[in-house]
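Hey, quick one: can you model this chain's 3D structure?
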Amino acid sequence: MQFLFPVPASSIVTQSFAEHVHRAKVNNWTNYNGGIDWAVSSGSPIAAAQDGTVSAVRNDATGYGTHVRIQHAEGYLTIYAHLMDFNVRVGDKVKAGQVIGRSDNTGNSTGPHLHFELRKNNVAVDPAPLLTTFLPAGGEPGGGMPGGGQPGGGMPGGGMPGGGQPGPGGETPGGEIPIGEEPQSFPSLPRARVISNIGLNVRMGPGVSHPIVGWLPPETLVEVLRKADAESVVGSGGAASDLWLQIGHQQFIAQRVGGDVLAVWLALPPAAPKPKRRRKKTV
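Sure thing. Here's the predicted structure for all 283 residues.
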């Protein structure tokens, strides 16, 4: 069985299934299911990935937040989490590509995105190999959605920020700005903010020689998986002083190129003061 992308296929993946699983393993999280996270703006339409029956709609204060669960054939279940709202009820029959709600930042979430899970007989599986932009039969895209089944959010280019097109010159100088303090704590992913006034291209690798796979508008906050090593940056045609950040699977943004800062680390919270030890008086 195949499944439609619940968001435009061009949307930025901020965390892959493998990265979710690794994060859970590192932290010994037992009740944690992997999925795929896509960065989409608040209010973007979310589509059902396949024909099915709505099995749950919930407004949780934590965890998935506002979310929808759909039961499909062959023991598959899909979950659409951190929504703003939904327009389906338990028991509703839905078609692949049908809008079931709008994205947001509810529950345990650090920014607007869709967390999408696929389970087979209640075991989480990687959705990526099963995702497609078109279902030839038995669940054809359409379902009242613009663009033949791909949610677009009413924006040009299928709902991608900035019209879905990579920003021109996304590595253009951003001025002499302090880069900020690099966070040291994990697994809470550090975040960075895009300060380039024309946005920032997302590339397949850590260098301008790599193809553009997306674009982030100015002031976007992104979670950072790791900082690219200098060897890979130089191997991509950059300088050893250039800094590139990985924000998803084969998705990198420039933090500093040619001495110009394009993204800065978010300020770390101030450290809690150490309690003062009282000295006992001796008599």
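One thing worth noting: Residues 2 and 130 are 5 Å apart (CA to CA).
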